[in-house]
Design the sequence.
């Protein structure tokens, strides 16, 4: 049985730079499903982000570690004092891990080991392999916790409870700090991004000289003013999603929607109890593309859901052929302990699931290849993820990190991670684009 989300208590000491580091670690912990708590007592572990600039700061840091050891006992130390681990080890040999400043990835690895995150294979918000923090140029921004839906294959509401939206002002301040720290692309995540603010009746909160409502459109508009790429994940096709498409057409936020459709057959969707009226979805997609022809839609699907008939599956394939989604992931249904879906109907035999999965992937590959082929000859913007001596790996606006495809960029001048460059696309293969920096 999956455990509830582990709770982390976080102590942040030191200068504004250290605070930015703390923000980044906290953002990524939230993205992985951890909960933050204000007290050491009852937390699964404590992270102390230390400062070692002056002797007095060192003493304060050691004091904070001592307190965390006494009140909790499971402590990870990071930050400037982490650069001198001997001093800490000498006083507190029981500390779980010590990492230096800006070693975000090591902190997360230590947290994952000491208190593994709870996991739902179908709906995890971050890639299975976890959040890699080495690239500093993109970051996940979690805007709410929990979920008001009750999809039958999902245990998130049981684990994390109903939707709790963060006030828009808080989210925007975090986003602004990320951008100031060098983040060039913000990936907005939550269990149901389009439901943002429903729980607080879209209450307004202060942001700069104005009030901003805790609402999907208002938040998207403000995020679009921060000067970074903004990518929306886990959006359900509620009617008000239409309102953000013009922001995409104007270039304020990326022309990208990650909509986990999970299926298309009305009877399977009903059995899944999925949010969003699917009947008119194809019409809606058509309209969105009229407003923003460059819109990329990515989605995930589940095949072999209990009770899925061959007819349901064929319906899904026909729907896919019409929807022409840019990027698609597909899971074979597996029972998640505690999910009502397991009781709905007899399980579909594994060989049928496998066979449907292969047919699905083959059908989608043909769609993706055609879409990618249509990009050849265009000049598009791309963000560099992994610079190379002659060819760098990056992504266009149509691709999210870790889950979508890449663009391989040949360049005479050296490129750096996070650079946004114009690329002339010269060829496409089944998943990726290849081009030259211009
Ligand atoms: S929308 Fe459905 S699948 Fe997603 S977290 Fe909520 S209940 Fe789970």
Sequence:
């Amino acid at each position: 049985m999956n455990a509830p989300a582990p709770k982390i208590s976080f102590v942040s000491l030191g200068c504004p730079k250290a605070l930015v580091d703390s923000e980044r670690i906290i953002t990524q912990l939230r993205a992985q499903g951890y909960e933050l708590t204000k007290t050491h007592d009852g937390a699964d572990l404590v992270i102390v982000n230390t400062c070692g600039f002056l002797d007095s700061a060192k003493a304060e840091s050691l004091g904070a570690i001592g307190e965390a050891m006494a009140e909790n006992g499971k402590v990870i130390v990071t930050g400037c004092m982490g650069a001198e681990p001997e001093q800490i080890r000498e006083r507190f040999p029981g500390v779980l891990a010590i990492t230096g400043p800006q070693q975000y990835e090591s902190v997360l690895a230590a947290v994952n080991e000491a208190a593994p995150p709870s996991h739902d294979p179908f709906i995890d918000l971050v890639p299975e392999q976890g959040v890699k923090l080495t690239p500093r140029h993109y970051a996940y921004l979690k805007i709410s916790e929990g979920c008001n839906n009750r999809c039958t294959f999902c245990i998130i509401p049981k684990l994390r409870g109903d939707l709790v939206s963060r006030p828009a002002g808080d989210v925007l301040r975090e986003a602004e700090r990320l951008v100031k720290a060098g983040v060039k692309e913000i990936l907005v995540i939550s269990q149901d991004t389009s439901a943002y603010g429903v729980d607080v009746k879209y209450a307004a909160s202060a942001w700069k000289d104005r009030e901003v409502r805790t609402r999907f459109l208002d938040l998207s508009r403000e995020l679009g003013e921060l000067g970074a790429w903004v990518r929306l994940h886990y959006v359900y096709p509620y009617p008000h999603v239409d309102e953000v498409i013009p922001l995409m057409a104007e270039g304020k936020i990326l022309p990208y929607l990650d909509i986990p459709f999970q299926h298309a057959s009305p009877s399977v969707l009903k059995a899944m109890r999925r949010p969003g009226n699917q009947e008119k979805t194809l019409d809606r997609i058509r309209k969105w593309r009229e407003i923003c022809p460059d819109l990329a839609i990515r989605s995930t699907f589940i095949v072999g859901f209990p009770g899925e008939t061959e007819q349901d599956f064929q319906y899904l394939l026909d729907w896919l052929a019409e929807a022409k989604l840019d990027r698609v992931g597909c899971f074979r249904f597996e029972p998640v302990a505690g999910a009502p879906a397991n009781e709905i109907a007899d399980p579909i035999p594994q060989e049928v699931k496998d066979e449907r999965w292969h047919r699905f992937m083959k059908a989608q590959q043909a769609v993706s290849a055609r879409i990618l082929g249509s990009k050849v000859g265009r000049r598009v913007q791309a963000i560099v993820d992994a610079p190379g001596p002659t060819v760098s790996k990056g992504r266009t606006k149509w691709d999210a990190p870790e889950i979508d495809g890449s663009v391989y960029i040949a360049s005479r001048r050296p490129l750096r991670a996070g650079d946004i460059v114009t690329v002339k696309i010269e060829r496409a293969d089944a998943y990726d684009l290849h081009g030259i920096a211009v």
